[in-house]
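Postdoc handover notes: sequence design on the structure in folder B. Input tokens:
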């Protein structure tokens, strides 16, 4: 039997490593199961929106900060969540940026913002249920792990 090609929805997202005094800014969000999830500021791109524009828009929404001078760090891409109802082809960009303003999120899902020492970032990463949530997929955190360790790569195939 031949393998049939299939079309996957494409999920494009951009996140920004905001660094100040060897601390990384993380967003605290409450998940559906009530737990707190720590993530990078950023999020999904709208149709027709570049990853850079999505990064600027989402960081402002989630943190209140205005970011400028985006610098590309890495791209993670490939099939994600295969076999679940959320399976997709992911293009996830990571950037660094200059920033200004005061921390004041307007996103109602953001319950807090925290400047975390680089050495403590990995300890806040929790993997676990529900597995269909891409943020809980360990692959998503590999670029961040490498970034905080000072060894980022430009490309991460899933």
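Designed sequence:
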């Amino acid at each position: 039997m031949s393998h049939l090609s299939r079309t996957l929805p494409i999920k494009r997202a951009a996140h920004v490593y905001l660094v100040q005094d060897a601390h990384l800014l993380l967003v605290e969000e409450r998940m559906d199961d009530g737990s707190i999830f720590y993530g990078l500021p950023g999020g999904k791109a709208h149709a027709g929106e570049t990853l850079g524009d999505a990064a600027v828009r989402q960081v402002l929404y989630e943190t209140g900060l205005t970011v400028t001078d985006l610098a590309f760090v890495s791209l993670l891409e490939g099939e994600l969540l295969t076999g679940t109802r959320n399976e997709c082809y992911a293009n996830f960009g990571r950037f660094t940026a200059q920033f200004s303003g005061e921390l004041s999120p307007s996103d109602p899902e953001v319950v807090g913002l925290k400047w975390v020492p680089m050495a403590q970032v990995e300890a806040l990463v929790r993997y676990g249920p529900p597995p269909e949530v891409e943020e809980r997929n360990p692959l998503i955190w590999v670029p961040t792990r490498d970034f905080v360790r000072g060894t980022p790569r430009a490309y991460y195939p899933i």
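Context for whoever picks this up: The first strand starts at residue 10 and ends at 17. Don't rerun without checking with the PI first.
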